[in-house]
Amino acid sequence: MNPVAMALIIVTLNAVFAVSAWRRFNLLKVGQQTWESRLTEIPKRLGLVWVFAFYQKKMRYYLAAGLAHQFIFLGFVVLLLRTLVLWGEQDSALSARLLLTGLSQYVPDVHVERFANAGHWLHRDLPETVAQRLIAFFAS
After folding, report:
1. What is the pTM of this model?
2. Buried/exposed code over 16-47 (b: 16+ C-beta within 10 A; e: otherwise)
């Protein structure tokens, strides 16, 4: 893409964001200050965090968007558990150097296994090996 056009797009989007942020900041100034203590009713507040943050209660008002949001949320939660990446070294579609470098910074318990004699469709190239690795991973 043309660098000038790209720079223009970035500047425009930043300006739109700045205007939107400024409007929201001005809306915050309209309200009055409250001096309520955030350290009271801790069990009740933790319960509300559970209901709105983890149970995603507000998302249930919008059925399609709410369900999509909950599946995305659960997907990220699953990534925090354990992750197995099986990678074919002959993959011509995706770059292992770009995608796997630093992955452990974002996915805490990631296990990466590389296979020199397989490509992008690892499960087609080495079906028995993939099945064995998955069974061993889920069994451990």
Report:
1. 0.45
2. eeeeeeeeeeeeeeeeeeeeeeeeeeeeeeee
